[in-house]
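Q: Joint fold for the lines below.
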Amino acid sequence: MSDDEAILAANAAYYRAFSAGDFAAMSRIWAEDGVSCVHPGWTPLVGRAEVIESYRSILTSPNRVRIVHRDDTAIVTGDDARVVCIEVVEGSALLAATNVFRRVGGAWRMVHHQASPIAMPIEDNEPTPPRGQRLN
Amino acid sequence: MSDDEAILAANAAYYRAFSAGDFAAMSRIWAEDGVSCVHPGWTPLVGRAEVIESYRSILTSPNRVRIVHRDDTAIVTGDDARVVCIEVVEGSALLAATNVFRRVGGAWRMVHHQASPIAMPIEDNEPTPPRGQRLN
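A: Joint structure:
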């Protein structure tokens, strides 16, 4: 498996854990050190304890939303990698997401996540807009 | 200068270039390879050409906003580093920002930026809320 494939697989595993509400898997996905996270609308979280606790809260919430990811693009530099992608929340709202990974002991672990709303919702069955196009 | 100090200085230089509308400085701040950017409300931009062009457009716009950064926290791992911080836009609106840097030839160059709105504006003269606290 190439680094790109491994990173895209790690990115997919994050969304699988999120969709399944699988906190144990989510906890394994995140690295032990150097982690941070910006959930939509939140101020930054820094450190594993804060980040993991936020996921415990989100994944066990009765209001947990369904998220599908698409348009994943991997950027790999040595032992560090990023995926930028689009999150489709509950089939309509769109977020732009960045997931940062670091290779630790041969495995890609997540060290940062940020998702932010895209200004204008687009229909899920419309063609994907050009990457980076401003939608409003 | 420690790595943390160097990273925080690089982060400050980014906002200085932004505030001054200094496109040449902004262009030098960004790395040559492996860059991506998510401006507020935008879909992800990938690659130096797209990212730099977006800054040319933003920095030369008559509607360019004033941004002050605060609560900078540096996370350094080898040749890769992140700063999470708060952006105060035009003295009121708050964004949560992540700036990712990579050490290239001894200098820290920016490889990723993302800023996303914080749900509830807070008064600039109020105490900073605990990092990571959900504001709504």
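Q: Anything notable?
A: The longest helix of chain B spans residues 3-20. The two ends of chain B are 39 Å apart (CA to CA).
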